[in-house]
Amino acid sequence: MTTTSAPLKPPESGPANTSRPRGRVLGGPRLRQLAQLGPVVALVLLAAVFAVSAPNFTSSANLTNVLQQVSITAIAAVGATVVILVAGIDLSVGSVVALTGSIAALYLQHAILSTGASAAVAVLLSLVVGTACGFLNGVLITFCRVPAFIATLATLTALRGIALLVTNSYPISINNSAFTQIGIGKVGAVPIPVIIMAVTFAVGYVILHRLKIGRRIYAVGGNREAARLSGIRVSRVLLFAFTFAGLCAGVASVILTAKLSSGQPAGAVGFELDVIAAVVVGGTSLFGGRGRLAGTFLGALVIAVLGNGLTLMNVPFYWQQIVTGAVVVVAVVLDRVTRGGESGE
Amino acid sequence: MKIRNILPILVCTTCAVAMTACSSSVNNNADPSDTAAPATNVEVNDGGCTENHDQIAKLQSDLSKNLYGIAAAESGKEERTNPNPIPESDPIKITFSVEGLSHPFLVKQKQLAEETGKRLGAQVNVISANDDVNQQFNDIQTAIAQGTDALMMMPATTQGLDAVLKQAEAAQIPYFFSQKGMLGVEPASQVLAPYSNEGQQLGEWVVEHYKGQEDVKVAIISGIPGDQSSDARVNSFLLPLLRSCNFNVVANQPGNYRRGDSEKAAQNMLAANPDIDLLFGANDEAALGGIAALKSSGRQGVDVVGLDGQTDMFAAIQSGQALATVIHKPTAGIVVEEAVDYLRGKPVPEYRVLDEDLVTKETIETGAQPAF
Asked: Residue A317 and residue B127: Cβ atoms within 8 Å?
């Protein structure tokens, strides 16, 4: 077959694939790089604005507070990032945190009366319960073929019910100073929750970028069918993702329960929305396959700094909610606009 | 037969079995006796009604450990003075942390605090924690870092804020409780609502109202499960009823202090008990939810009582849909005054509980006004 004599046109300096993009693409790779920097730019801008207009924003006490306050959401967001990377979603995080905290508090309260409670056992118990809840989600989604949204919506309700049942709805106070130190203690000048947050992010990074399971996670999220056809056991990857998210929720619950020195069965309501917002603002795509843990950390920080700065400026709290919602929308729109060329709808 | 096919049936059967087992083994009225104040030995006064003796003993014991029962007993006795008063020339900044703004009473508290602050020349900054105790913890932590002169709080739960209040003590920032309080901490003053007195006053009125009638069936729409204020109201309301021996509590469901949930609870109780005589709502929102349930079910001859003294409840009493309520006064204004006094060096009482007024159709006609 002869080709035409006209030289082939060079590929457009746009998205890598050569099919005609259906969405509007503004500038291609450069904007995509910029979009990845989005959370960084937002954070720097916010910090600059608040340093000037919010009293005490830059004081070391306040900055330490912000890091401490963001740690609970950020740790749970590590697990949520993995789940969202495989194009799943976990709505049950808040209920898992409440249930795990309640069980740990009940253990500490009752063990005092018998053999003497151990903070280490309480922590281990929290991790086990959190992981078990995550595993339950995973089983419902893989084995029972329930869509992630519905499965985690169901566990959100049921696990909350169990938490309220075992505690009779009362907050359970904790008298174990070793355990409560986890939430409010410091090593030198660094609060313990911040150290735990750093460790969790490190573990998440190793999983996503140094282990084989990480590559499989990105593959399954990017294109589940293609991943299945190339031999990846998709069920195993999904099960892993949700179980890991449960483990992260357990860690977050340990810090929250220690900080409040009580198990709160009615607490952490709506927590999953804060967590998902942090992941989304950080640049991870809700459709799966794209996103980095660093982005999640920045996303969580952007939301926390926003809330903190507005509180310091005495801005009424409903404005904080409006602004936070707007930030999430802007983040998602930016993500869609830069992806518009690659996959279309 | 594939396991995938029978799995849903297995799951459903297991759940059904678990639910029946659980409902029979869980004591729905278990009290947090391990976590509240140490028990005091109370002499059981059963008013001659021996068949309710055990129930009365339990209620008396619960109330003696309840913060609001203790506060009512200690009101106005001890005083606290500020060791580091602020001179008259320096401005005062107070931060008021409300648990949320999801109830008209909470909005009224915010308004009162801001008005009183303006009147006294102090800056009052109100922050809302969206009904989440972790958010409230963070808010208070931020306020401490901000360098506020005093803290005022309506705590979202009775436990959870201990660690951040210790930080406030370390930073020498005095804190006050308005309406709802906490045990086990050292506030400068607690101006608490008379949750136990209101319940008792209403209960005694109900006993008078039904004098001579036998076997009056009562359904309770309680408040937020696990909340001490709800326990105080319900338990202190029930004591006079149990002592007079002609009342029978047939149902008790939580309405979360909100109209929507209370209406659902009332509908279920009315459907399960066809001959209820009296509906008790732990607050007016609960009572109004009960009235809505009665309207939609078309039931006649059921009396309704509540607590709070809300405008809508006044309308219901005047139109005959409800019998009585008790005025629940917001204390935010008084706490701002106390905070300013304390910061300037004047003594304030450790506990202060306001008195309350019963409201019926007659008192409205002679000029009673709603609390909010």
From this structure: yes
